[in-house]
Amino acid sequence: MNSIPVLEVKNLSKRFGDRGAAGLKNISFSISDGETLAAVGASGSGKTTLARLIMRLAESDEGSIRLQGQDITVLHSELLRPLRPRFQMVFQDPLAAFNPRASVRRILEDPLRLHGLAAKEEYDAVIGATLERVGLSADLMARFPLELSGGQRQRVAIARAILTKPALIVLDEPVSALDVSVRAQILNLLLDLQEETGVAYLFISHDLAVVRAFADRMIVLEEGRIVESGITDEVLANPLADATRVLIDAVPRLSA
């Protein structure tokens, strides 16, 4: 395992003037190759803000974000572009993340073209192989997002994320909108891809039953602060923070 963390966050803070937005206060953690760290917390705890800051979709006020040892908080626009393939994101609602007028082929072609990852004549072969890698038929290339099921759309979102061979994928509630049976299939797919590639995951969630099955370690956020962290099984077996106990109590099979 590489001694340099895939992701290292130090003293990250974000303040909002709007009271409705959740900020962050002095957040620090790291994630290694092939590891899954879950960031959990109730609504308004700062989970989504954390994901947006790490993806550089918003700017932090203080602290640093290092991707494979490189500080990406100081990089802007053109300097950040070459690093974009290294860190990708899968959203809770892939339908909202896709252009509904773009076919699956176009959705998956965009990162290949933008980052120069394949020659134009190779697009169909690369896209077809990637679809099959996430359990979809290459025949779906001509379909549009609205013609797919929720599980199929999330598989396309995962395919788009892995096309760039990232070191880190931020998973923002990736299964919360799916049926229980489909949820298990998507989680198993993500675990298989991680075992195959060594990709690291930051898993944003409020569902501790899913976190227990999926994450190696976890941090618990409350009002923008980390109030508890540790190995997932140990935190869930012996929670120290009130916020963690509240989340556990919301899941009967964990609190029983």
TrEMBL record:
One of its GO terms (molecular function) is ATP binding. Residues 7-248 form the ABC transporter domain. Pfam families: ABC_tran. The keyword Transmembrane helix does not apply. It comes from the Bacteria. Keywords: ATP-binding, Nucleotide-binding, Transport. One of its GO terms (biological process) is transmembrane transport. SUPFAM superfamilies: P-loop containing nucleoside triphosphate hydrolases. Belongs to the ABC transporter superfamily. PANTHER family: D,D-DIPEPTIDE TRANSPORT ATP-BINDING PROTEIN DDPF-RELATED, TRANSPORT ATP-BINDING PROTEIN. This is Peptide ABC transporter ATP-binding protein. It comes from Phyllobacterium zundukense.
